[in-house]
Each structure stands twice: as structure tokens, then as C-alpha cells.
Amino acid sequence: MWWRIYALLAKEFLNLLRDKKSRFVLIVPPLVQLFVLSYAATFDLNQMPIAIYNEDSGQAARDLIARFTGAPAFREELRITRQEQIAAALDSKRVLLVLHIGRNFSRDLLGGHQSASLQVLLDGRDSNTAQIAQGYLRSVLSRFNNDWAAGRGQAGPPAELVVRAWFNPNLESRWFIVPGIVGLLTLVVTMTVSALSVAREREQGTFDQLLVTPFTPTEILLGKAIPGLIIGVLEASLSIFFAVFWFQVPLLGSLPALYLGIVLYVFSVIGVGLMISSLSLTQQQGLLGGFLVIVPGVILSGYATPIENMPELVQHFTLINPLRYFLVIIRGVFLQGLQAADLLDQYWPLALIGLFCLSCAGWLFRKRLY
Amino acid sequence: MSGFGLRLRGLMRKEFLQVWRDPSSLAIAFAMPVFLLLLFGYGVSLDAKQVPIGLVIEQTSPAAREFAGGFVQSDYFAPRYFANLHEAEAALLARQINGIVHLQSDFARRLQANAPAPIQVILNGVDANTARLVSGYVQGVWDKWLGAHAEGNGRTANRPVQMEARIWFNSALRSRNFLVPGLIAVIMTLIGALLTALVVAREWERGTMEALISTPVTVREVLLGKLLPYYLLGMGGMLLSIGMAVFLFQVPLAGSLWVLLLAGTLFLLAALGMGLLISIAAKNQFVAGQIAIIVTFLPAFILSGFIFNIDSMPPAVQLITHLVAARYFVAILQTVFLAGDVWEVILPNALALLVMAAAFLALALWRAPRRLE
Amino acid sequence: MNQSASACALRFAAVSKAFADTGPALRDIDLALPVGGITALVGPDGAGKTTLLRLAAGLLLPDRGRIESFGLDSVTAGGQLHSLIGYMPQRFGLYEDLSVQENLQLYADLYGIAQAERQSRFADLMRMTNLAKFGERLAGRLSGGMKQKLGLACTLLNRPRLLLLDEPSVGVDPLSRRELWQIIATLVAEFGTTVLLSTAYMDEAERCQRVVLLDRGEILQQDAPAAFHALASDCSFLLSSPRTSNRALQQRLAAHADVVDSVVQSGAVRTVVRPGSRPDWSKLFPGAETVVSRPVAPRLEDAFILLLTRRRSSLADAETVCFNPHGAGAKLDGSRTPVIEVDQVDRWFGRFQAVKKLSFQVGRGEIFGLLGANGAGKTTTFRMLCGLLPASNGTLQVAGLDLRRAASQARARLGYMSQKFSLYGQLSVRQNLEFFSQAYGLHQGRRRERIDWAVGQFGLQAFLEHNSADLPLGYKQRLALACALMHEPEILFLDEPTSGIDPLARREFWARINQLAAQGVTILVTTHFMEEAEYCDRLLIMREGDILAAGTPAEIKQRSQAGGAEPVTTMEDAFIRLVEAGGEVGG
């Protein structure tokens, strides 16, 4: 049996790799996505344009402004001199926010009786960026306050926040996004390969030819699943390589734990892909079916938006999403340094999804064949 | 010129019938938009609400209770109390909570003694974005508490400078309000570029193009016969999306509908031009579909400012975004929906769309085959 | 000069055309079609027939030379030309998800036909094509023959003065084929339309006023069919022998140096000899054997083969086919043990019964033909026999086993070749051969031996590393047969194996099949090509899922004769007569 499966595997790989189009689909889109996503998909603020409206002439105000413009998150785009200019600057999206220091700033600050006020006007169209920007502003300001108080020998605030982030001390989005991309790319490639595999043979008429040979349905199913597994694992390895050596994301945990996760994850994705494929009569249907699964699969995985933020009902839906489990595994192994034993509760749902879908695919296989 | 009218009518009727009878076209034109809208309208939110957070208060005191009260009252947190730090850390590792706020046993004493009392905040940095949001919220609670604490003790605030933030346009900072308008650009890309690329490639694949060009139909008519039906379909998708956004998801529409429709027209023409160009180059559904996803759908998702802010991207990537038509449309959409008819935003972006539409359509017309080679 | 040019419906003057990827397609073509009449374009695969038609339709531009149609230059006239010419591509340009009526509407719009005139033209065409009752049906759901008729109807909406048809009758059953030809004949008679069509069927070309024979991008000969006949006069004979089977006789004849062509037909072997040669048939059988030889009138096909063989060193290397099946000892044993048994088989698709209580048997070493119009149920029957489709009722046994339930080993005993080229197009010829030999469980040494055999037998050496999708049609079909024979099956299933293949390749193919049968391989074949039915030992003609007639070709011809007064000479006449007579003959 095994060398017959070997024949099927050789055929499958030749069929995939000899064709320029399929080679293209396997290699170019994943690499483009890896780089574009890794660089573009970030929630960190970097050189955001801001406007300054300073009505105060004191040194303290200038010092405060220097703190903000000196932060890597911000860049002074515009200096405003009149109230009316604020609206124009924000409306036109020229700046994300306007820092307004009022006429009485120095007086209040030096007088020490009441807090000086720093007014911030934010463009809330992109609510996420606005919120993150507020966080950045607060921490710049709180450092300024501490230094100011210390410089005058005044007591600081009675209680101080000491914030520590585990696993990602500088809270770099990239550490979070890039491992996620590994999961995403593996999903896209494995799904495309497996969703098209049976549909392509059916469209080209080779499936009938295959069925009249002595291959058993199990052999054909394995012959379709194993190439997907190999390609998926290779694709994941390639992206992990780039994540570690190009994007410098720390890989703390055990590689075997990660690879166990990858194999189970790819296995479950192949199950879904082959299920789609055995339902499709043409490649176009296979491609579209894959697309219809990938898009919600990515959105509802916790890749960019946390699952906890979703409505309860939607959260239940995510339980059948393989990417959800894999993201926990890969981020856990990369950043938290987890071992296989810590991840058992992520492994078994993946295995279950894979087994279920693959048996469905096998059954549909027989059903649609005849 | 009745011959022209007749031919165009025939081509358009054919196109509509085909879309109507092909389940995969229907899926892209109708099912996918509604599905995406529901997903983004209900499923996805970038705002952290009711974040599970662990509170470890080693010794209760009025000040500590007051501080913890800030978390209970806040909309952003769903606090859970832990007896000791160890248990809380275990919960953090098990992803049951997103962060820990830890008040040590000497909190009240140090507060009294005016020696800075540390409040330890531990965040799970694995999800850096959430961690950053949570950190901001914790700071907000702390800030509020400081003010109240100082007031309660009859003192002025200990903060030399206090920040007063005012949010314009989307003051509640609902992420839905900016996701849903941006999604319209993605949906129209789906219909304008992906569907169009697929259907034209199908004509080549099935050999109907050969029959078409052997009739008196001109290239311009064939292109127009594709453009008009998918333009109508795309605008239909847009109206549907706007309707769902305003009536189902309660996204305010501050600007005017006609501006949206006009900008939508320009964007759709650019997307259609790209779809036609792709299909002319590919002549094969499979390749056309792949290219359309890579050069139109993914950029509309990632490089348009729909989710990720363009200004934060590296300069090289920012340059690339200028080639993405969706970028200009997303800017118009978010502005017209949330800010109103701001011409400083609308006009330059509309101009960019106009240039792209003209360029792509001209290219498509130029590259369109008049014969079989 | 001008006068003569405008009198021509189509004129090619020193036209050449080459493609970047495949090289020259046409060289110095000179052609002049007078207005009216039908011209057939014939030639082997890859001769340049489609390129010539596309050039004529203005879909391609010539590299050199001039093409004129009714005095209009194809390069400059553009749109004007399109309203004079009707062109039907090989893959009829129908929208499969539009109904018959909608397709007609679309083309009426495209041709700008006025509303008032439309209804009468639709009615005419519907009457001509017999499609009236299918107006609401989607074009994708029509049978191959109906699709072709609809394609033709769409092209005819504009009443073109020049009609270009690219292989209009490929994959069309004899009945629809005849209807198609009636439509074309009507056009020529009523409207004076000029028709240029390409075809692989020589009997169709025979009916045309002019025949243009194209080979490797050049015109070999263009003339009336009668002039072609003259080329082959005194070369055609019907041979038979009382003691030897026709198939054995044909094999001996094929090996003869002076014999250009020999096929089994009408209970004898139709033989074409080299012009001027007078072979002595008695030398073929040195014993007491006598060969009866009777001269017959030449056909276009004879001339076609004569002309082409003159340009090629030898017709084919098929004479050397040598094959040792498992049952090599069990040659024709006279008893003809049944190898395929079909008993009371039904097949339902929903509420539609595709096959009704079908029963028949096929003996070892028999060539058994399954015939029928499109939709008669022969493909369903075929797929059930291969185990690709379960029967709703009844039993099917192949080599004593039901293939649906049998272990995979049982499938190792049969070979399968489908009508559509269904090998892995992205794999090279060698990789396809390797894969199928592995699939059938051949081990290393044996595998190499069989691959060498296949490469040698089928002349695939030059193409070994080519992608099989890029092979010429005839070679694709050779490769498909080679793959089906890798494991020396006892039973061979062939589903329309020669559809769209030129007469030369068809000859070659059947020579191989005959030799396999002679060695004890059982062959089940479906075909639309009635001449091929003559090559079968026994036939089954199906109609609406039922048996219409069964028996040897001679018996079937005789039975069809009972219906009418005219003598039935060809299988095609017999088939049409039987199908039209309907249930009367069925049993």
C-alpha cells in the first residue's frame, strides 16, 4: 500500500510544481503577504503627524512640547497659531491630534495651586488609533509630571503605577502580529492546495481515470492529504524562519511543541480543504469555497482583534476555527516559552476538527464519486 | 445609433442573467458583502470592553477599596479578586485574565506616610495591542482616583499638568463606526475587481469571447457591456452596505449621500478598470482570481487604512499605499460618514481616484484584444 | 481583375501565418471560393485548418499575403466584414447559463436585427433546428448535437453570406449530424450562402462541391470530390476469404508492401493499393486459401490516404504492435466465455430513468460496440461497467466481479480510456507512464520494461519529456492508450476514443485495437463514428435507455433493411433507419 501512496504523492507534487501557475500560487502570494503584513499590519504608533497650538510663551510649555515631538510615536506636522486652524487641521486628516497649551499654562504650573491643563483634540474617525494615541500621550505626560515634581523637590503623586508587561516588555505589535502571520499564511496556502486538489482532477477528468485504477478511496484520500501536510509544514517553517531571523521575534519555547501544533493545525485545515474540494465540481468553486472559509477564519481567530471582545455568540463560533487554537499555540511557544504539556487543551480540539473533517471528506468523496 | 444601443442592451442582459444563474457570482456579489458586514458589524471590535482583570489587594484599607472601586465602576473592566499574587499570575498564564493590578500590604501605610506607594500592574504582553489598551485604561482609572484622592484629603492635585482629551467625530470611540464605512471599500473591491476579473476570464476560457468578437460588436462595446452591469451591481452593493451601516449598525452619516455615491462611482470605475485589466492579462479564471485577490482584495484590506493606520507604516510601505485605490476611498468614506463633507479630504482623494480610474480604463481599452492574438 | 475579386466569396493570396510559440502554421496559401456552394477543409491534426478559418473570419491577421471576402480586405474592413461573415468556433460560442431563447436574443441584439424581423427569423431557425420545444432550456443542458445546432442557429441569425464552420460535427451523433447537414444544404439552396467548413469525417467532405486538403500548413490539393476519386481509381478492392476471419485477413493485408490502407467494412476488407501496383493476393496465403477480390469505386478517403502517405515515409508503425496479455494462451477459444455480463440493469437519476432493464454479454476477445444517439444512456452504461456509477437495480459483472464492490485488485484487470483526454496534463509523457505503471502495481524491473515497450510501440520517444497537455491530439490519444495498456489488462474500456481524430490516426488506433483483440483482450467501445461500428464483432444500439438493436454489424444492417425499400449499405444508414423506425425493431 505504501509504495502506491508514494506513487500518488510523487504525482501530486509533480502536478503542483511543474505548472508555472501553481508554483506561482504556492510561492509568490505567501511571501508578499508575509512582508506586507508584517510591515503594514501594526497597531504601534510611529511618527504620527500632530499639530501644536501653543498660546503660552513660557519655557515649561516649550519643554513639554519637546517631550511630545521628541517621542518616536509623534512628529510635529504643523504649528498652529489661531483657534480656527484647529478644525481645518483635524478635518483634513492632516494631523491625528492637536496639542493645545492655553494662555495660563505657565502661570498654573508655576503657581502650583492647580494643575496646568493640556488640551488634546483627537480625530476619532479611526477610534483604535485615537485610543492608542491617548495611551501614548498619557505616558509621556506622566513622565513629564514626575520629572517636574522631582526637579522642584515636590512630592510626586501619592501612588505610582508600575506597569510591567510579561512576555513582551515593550509591547511591540510585531511580536504579536508576525507569529500570527505564520498561522495565516499556512492557512491560506494549505487551504488553497487542498481545496483545489480534488476539484482540479474532477475538472480535468483525471479523477475518473484514478478511480478505475486499483487505488482504494483511503489511498486516494491519503494521497491528497499528505502533500498538503508537507506543503503546509514547509510553508510554516519558512515563515517561522523569517519571523525569527528577519523580524527578530524571540522564540522562547520548545520547537517540538510548536511543530506538534503545526502538524495538528495543518491536519485540521486539510480536513476542511478536502471537504470543500469534494463538494466542488470545478476549480473555481474550490477556490471560492476556500476564500469563503479563509476570510471569516482569519477575522474570527484573534489574529488582529481579541476574541474576548466579540459577542458571546460569535465567541462560540470561534471554537470550530482551527486558527484560533493555533494562534494560542504559536504565540505561547514564541513569546511565553510554553512547552507541549502547557498546550494540551489547544492540541486536542485541533486533532478533533481534523479527524472530523477528514472523515467527512472521505465520506463525501465516495458519495460524490459515484 | 440603434445598432449600438441594441448590442449594448443584449450584452448587459446577458451579463445579468449570467450573474443571476451562477451561484459563485451570487456568492461574491451578495452573500459575501452581507456576511462581511455582519462579521464586522457584530463580530469584530477593536475596543476592549469588560476586560477581565485580576485585583490582588494584600491588605484592605479605605484607600485600597476606593482604588479598586474605580475598576468595578469602569466600563472597561470586569475585575476579579485574587487572594494572592501567585493565584493571579496563574490565571494570567491560563489566559483567564488580561492583566493584574497588585496593591501590596504596605499600600495604605505608604500612602499615609506620603512615601510613593507603588501600584504594580502586570499585563499579558502576548497580545500587545490589547495590553496597550488595557494599560491606557488602567492609567485612566488611576488618574481619576488620584484626583478624587487629593480632593478628599483637601489638597490640590499632585499632577503639575493634567490632560484633557476631547475626541472629535466619533466621541464614543466605537470601532464599528470606522470599520463599517471602511468595509464598504473592501466590498466594492470584491464586486468591482474580483468578480469582474473572474467573469471576463470565463469568457476566454469557455470560448465565448471568440464567438463574440466574430460578430459586429466592437471592443469598446464588449468592455462597456461588462462595465455597466458590474457598475450597477457594485453601486447596489454600496447602497446595501450604507443602508446596513446606518440602519442596522447605527453608524452616523454626517456628510451627504450624493458625495458618497459620487466617490463610490469613481472608486468603482478604478476597481472595474483593474478587474478588466487583470482578466485581459490572465485569460484564465484561476490565475485571474489569484491575481485579483493579491493586487486588489488584500491591499484593500491591509494597505487602505481600513484597519491599520497608514501613517504608522514604514515609509516604503506608505509609498506603496499610494497605488491602492481603496486608500483614497477609505479616507473619503470615513470622513463623510463621521466628519461630514470635508472638501479638503474629499477633493484630493476624489482627484486621485479619478486619475486611477481613467488610467486603468484607458489601459484596459488599449490592451483589450481586437483579435485572437 | 476587380471583377473576379468581387465574384469571390473568399480569397487567400499567398497567405502565410506563424505563431510565436508553435512556429509556422500556414505557408503560401492560395485559395479562391466562388460564391455559393460548400467547401470542405480536410487534413490531419495540426494541418492548420482552424488557423485558416480564423484568418478568414478576421480573428487573426496574416503575416504575409492578402485575404479578401466579397472584395473586402480582412485587415482594413473590420466591422463591415463581421456582418457579412458568420463564424462558428469549435467550442460553440454559446453561453451555457443562458437558455436557448436567450442565446438567440443575445446574438440578435449583437447583430442588430430589427425587432420586427426577429420573430420570423427565430421561428425559421427553430423550425430548421427542431429546437422549438427546448426554448426555455439552458444551453449547458443541451446534448452535444443540440448545442451545435443552436450554435449554428445563432450564427445564422444574421443571414451571413459566408459561413465558416470549424469542425461542426465533432461529438455529434449521426442523427443530429444529418440534421446539421440538412440545415446547411437549405442555406446554400435558398440564400446562396457560401460555406467553408473543416471536418474530420471524409463522408461529409464527399458531399461538398469542393474539397481542400491541407497538410502541415500547405494546400496539397483542392478540387471537386470527383477529381480526388480519379486519383485513387483502380486502387480500391473488397477482399474476403471464406476460411479466414476478416480481422485476420486485414492484419495480413496491412503488412503487405503495396497495401496503403485496409479496413474491415461490409463483411469484407476494403483495401487500397499503391496506384499502378497489381498485388498478387494468392501469395498472402500460400496454402489452399483463396482470396476473393472485387474492385470497388474509390472514395475520397482513399485519395486522402494516398496523398498523405505519399508525403510520409510510412503510414504508421502500428504493424509492429505486439502484446502479451495474461491470457496469452487463452486465445480465441471459440467458446467465447462471457467476460462482461449485464443482467436486468436499471439506473435512475432522480425521476429520470437513464437505463432500462439492460441485459447483454460480451465474450472474451470480442470487440463490442455500444452505440446510440446523444443521451441514449450509453455513457451511463459505460460508467456503470467501469464501477464509476452504481446501478439502481440488477447485476453487472466484469470478469466475474462487480467493480463497485470488488477489491482494488479486480480493477487491475481492466484498462480505461475516456473520450476527454484525462491524463495529467502537467506531467511529462514519461511521468504519466511511470505513474500509471505504479498505480497498477508494477514493480521496478517490470515497470522499466513496460515503459520501454510503450515508448517503442507508440513512438513516444521524441515526446518523452514534453508535458502531455502540449502533445498533438493524435499523440495524446496514443499516450492515453499506452497508459491504459501498461498493466496488460484483460478488458479494455474505450469511451469515444477517436472523437475528433483524423482518419490517419484513426486507422492506426484501430490497427492496434484489432491486434489486441486477436490476442484475447476483450474490448468494449462507444463511438459516434459509424464506420468504426463496422470494426466491432458485435454491436448494441441504445435508445432512451433501452436496447434498440443488437447483433453483428451485418445482422443489424439486415434488420434495418426490413424497414424500407432502399438498400442499406453503410452502418450510418442502418443506424439512422433504426433510430427513426423507433420501437418497432427494438426488443
TrEMBL record, chain A:
State where it is primarily located. Answer: membrane
What highest taxon heads this organism's lineage? Answer: Bacteria
Q: Tell me any Pfam family this protein matches.
A: ABC2_membrane_3
In this protein, which residues make up the domain named ABC transmembrane type-2? 130-368
- Read off the InterPro entries from this record: ABC-2_transporter_component, ABC2_TM, ABC2_TM_bact-type
| Gene3D superfamilies reported for this sequence | abc type-2 transporter like domain
The protein's UniProt keywords, in alphabetical order, are:
Cell membrane, Membrane, Transmembrane, Transmembrane helix, Transport
Membrane topology summary: Multi-pass membrane protein
> Where in the cell is the protein located?
Cell membrane
Transmembrane portions of the chain: 175-199, 220-246, 258-279, 286-304, 347-365
Similarity remark: Belongs to the ABC-2 integral membrane protein family.
Q: What is this protein called?
A: ABC transporter permease
Q: From which source organism is this entry?
A: Methylomonas aurea
From TrEMBL, chain B:
Where does this polypeptide localize? Cell membrane
* Membrane topology value: Multi-pass membrane protein
Domain of life assignment: Bacteria
The UniProt keywords, alphabetically, are: Cell membrane, Membrane, Transmembrane, Transmembrane helix, Transport
- The main place the protein resides is membrane
Q: Which residues form a coiled coil?
A: none
Pfam family name, one: ABC2_membrane_3
What are the transmembrane regions?
A: 26-44, 178-201, 230-249, 256-281, 287-308, 320-340, 346-366
Gene3D superfamilies with a match to the protein in the record: abc type-2 transporter like domain (3.40.1710.10)
Q: Which InterPro entries match?
A: ABC-2_transporter_component, ABC2_TM, ABC2_TM_bact-type
Domain spans labelled ABC transmembrane type-2? 131-371
For this chain, the family text in UniProt reads: Belongs to the ABC-2 integral membrane protein family.
Q: Which PANTHER family match?
A: MEMBRANE COMPONENT OF ABC TRANSPORTER YHHJ-RELATED, MULTIDRUG ABC TRANSPORTER PERMEASE YBHS-RELATED
Q: What name has this protein been given in UniProt? A: ABC transporter permease
From TrEMBL, chain C:
Stored SUPFAM superfamilies: P-loop containing nucleoside triphosphate hydrolases
Q: Which domain of life is it from?
A: Bacteria
Q: Which Gene3D superfamilies does its entry note?
A: P-loop containing nucleotide triphosphate hydrolases
- Which UniProt keywords are given for this protein, alphabetically ordered? ATP-binding, Nucleotide-binding
Supply the CDD domains for this chain: ABC_DR_subfamily_A (cd03230)
A molecular function annotated in GO for this UniProt entry is: ATP binding
A Pfam match: ABC_tran
Q: Which PROSITE patterns match?
A: ABC_TRANSPORTER_1 (PS00211), ABC_TRANSPORTER_2 (PS50893)
Could you tell me which residue ranges the ABC transporter domain spans? 10-241, 340-569
The entry's protein name is: ATP-binding cassette domain-containing protein
